[in-house]
Amino acid sequence: MEKLIERGLLYDYYGGLLSEKNRRIYEAAAIDDMSLAEISDEMGISRQAVSETLKRTDDKLRGYEKELQLILKAGRLEEELAELRGAAFEDPIDRKKLIEIINRIEEAI
Asked: Fewer Cβ close by (within 10 Å): the C or N end of the chain?
């Protein structure tokens, strides 16, 4: 995953678990795509502090995903729903296939 996309996803799913300061720094990097220097100037801290905070926060958020796998599970559910949509528009509709997909989605939830 591209770093910015990965950070955006991690922030979307787990950003609420961060302290206010870490959230502001991470949001500036992940959402606003600000440079270390820009974040440093805005926050009134050194570039080194920004860099270290981002690294620690990246590690923390990746750890949350490793344990909880919310992003992975959401991706799987999107794939299952796409398959369900496709099966729903087949002619003729295969009810057995629809039920199988629905059961997989229920298990995933």
From this structure: C
